[in-house]
Amino acid sequence: HKFPLSTPACHPLGMCEVKVHPVTRRLARNFDGLFPEQDLQKEPHVVVTLAVKTKYRQSAMSAEMQEERQLCFELIVEKMKAFKAHFDAAER
Question: Distances from the Cα of 90 to the Cαs of 6, 76, 85, 86, in angstroms?
Fold first, then answer.
């Protein structure tokens, strides 16, 4: 796997949290214009978030934090692309 084992927080077996949030009217307003083909207030929609536990505080700028942030970002993008492909295949 391309993620180094020296960064266990971003290793695929590291800790992560997935949450599903219903799109409320208030939340839909925050997404105004982002999905012009979707009426987020009319149909039921959800927002899925994925958080990855990190070793370094993400508010303390350091070379280690920057490297970890980049690795974790790549991991999150990879996982969310697979998540989206799964639901696209199921036509959901």
Answer: 36, 21, 9, 6
